[in-house]
Amino acid sequence: MSCHEILQEKGHRLTLQRMLVIEALHNAVRHISAEEIYEELHRRHPYANISTVYRTLELLKELELVTETDFGEGRVRYHVAEKGHHHHLVCHSCGRVADLEETALHPLKEGLLDEYGFVADLRHLAISGRCNECRSGHETEPKLRY
Amino acid sequence: MSCHEILQEKGHRLTLQRMLVIEALHNAVRHISAEEIYEELHRRHPYANISTVYRTLELLKELELVTETDFGEGRVRYHVAEKGHHHHLVCHSCGRVADLEETALHPLKEGLLDEYGFVADLRHLAISGRCNECRSGHETEPKLRY
DNA sequence: GTTGCATTCGCAAGTGGTTGCAATAATTCT
DNA sequence: AGAATTATTGCAACCACTTGCGAATGCAAC
User: Fold this and answer.
1) Does residue B94 share a domain with residue B76?
2) How many Å apart are CA A135 and CA A99, to the nearest integer?
C-alpha cells in the first residue's frame, strides 16, 4: 500500500504539499534533510512553507511511514520506512556511515523485553563511535555518507 | 581527581563561570538541563551568559567529565560522568524513566567490535519505547523522571 | 456543482542551541 | 607585583525546529 493510500485511509487529507514531500522522500537516494525536502517542494510550490515540511514529516513518522535519524550533523535526516529498516554506525573521526542490519539489535531488544518488560523502539538508530579504518590509522575519505 | 584538577591539568583555565557550572552539575540530584545550570550560574554571576554554559558543557563532554542524554523533551540533560554510567529506558506513553545498567549494552558493543571493528561510543543512551506498566494497561504516574 | 466544516496551511514569533567577534581576564613570564 | 599572552567570555546574530492563530482548502453531504 502506498503512502498516499495509507494517509487517506487514516482520514488525513492528500494535499499537494504532502504529496510533494512524499515524492521528495521517495526520490531521495539516501537520507534526506528537511531543508532538502523543502527545496524540492519550494521549486514546484513557491508559497509553501518549511513548517509544513516539518508537520508532514511528523505525521509520516507517527504513521511509521518514515524514520528519522540523527547522524550528529546538527540536523536530522529522513528515510522512507518501506525502503528497508537498518541502523547506522557513524564514525566521529572521518564521518563515514556504515549500515547495520536491523537484526543486529534484536538480541538487545529481546533482552529488554525479558528483563524489564520494556518494548524498545529501535528504529533507524545512529550509533556513534570510531570505525576500523580510523582505528588502524588508515584514515581515508569515506565514500558513503548518510 | 576532581573536575577542577583535570581541567587545569589539560591546560584549560579555571574561571568562575566554569566552577559554577561544575558545581551546579555536582549538586544536581539527577539529570540537569542547560537552562537549569544557567539559573544557578546567573544567581551568583548575573552578567554570565547561557552561551558560556553551553561552551563549558561542550568542553566537559570532550574531557568525558559529563555525559549528555536526550530524553526526548526537546532539550538535553547532563550528568557528571563520575557519578556512574548507566543508560535509560524512556516510556513514550507515561514518560517514566528507568535506569539500565551499563553492562546491558556490553554484548552489543562486543558484537560491533568483532563484526565491524567498530568501537561504539554508547554513553548515557536513552532508549525509547513502552514500559511494562503501560503495556499491561495500568498506566500510573511515574515516580522517577530524568 | 455548491455548501459546510474540520483539517491543513502560511506566517510570524518563539525555543533550544551554536557561532563569530571584540572585549575581558586567567595564567605565564619577568 | 606588573606586563604580555592567549584562552575565555558576553553579546548579538544565526540555525534547526516548533507552535499559535487566522486564512485557505480538501473532502463529504446534498
Assistant:
1) no
2) 18
Distance CA B38, CA B20 (A): 9
> Which nucleotides of strand C come closer than 7 angstroms to any CB of the protein?
7-13, 15-20, 25-27
Q: Domain check: are B112 and B73 in the same one?
A: no
A63 touches chain B (CB under 8 A): no
Domain stops at, among B66, B82, B98: B82
Number of domains composing chain A:
2
B-chain residue closest to A120, CA distance: B129
Contact B116/A at CB under 8 A: yes
pLDDT, residue B139, reads 66
Q: Are A115 and B131 in contact (CB under 8 A)?
A: no
A29: domain CATH number is: 1.10.10.10
- Averaged pLDDT score across all residues of chain A: 92
State pLDDT tens for residues B46-75. Answer: 999 999 999 999 999 999 999 999 999 999
Cell output for B44:
551568583
Q: Do B128 and A105 touch (CB under 8 A)?
A: no
Element (H, E) at B104: none
Q: Do B57 and B35 fall into the same domain? A: yes
Same domain as B8, residue B39:
yes
User: Over the stretch A9-39, which tens digit does the pLDDT of each residue have?
Assistant: 999 999 999 999 999 999 999 999 999 999 9
HSE-CB at B17 with a 13 A cutoff on CA atoms is 17
Question: Does the predicted interface ipTM exceed a cut of 0.85?
Answer: yes
Q: Which structural domain range is residue B45 located in?
A: 1-82
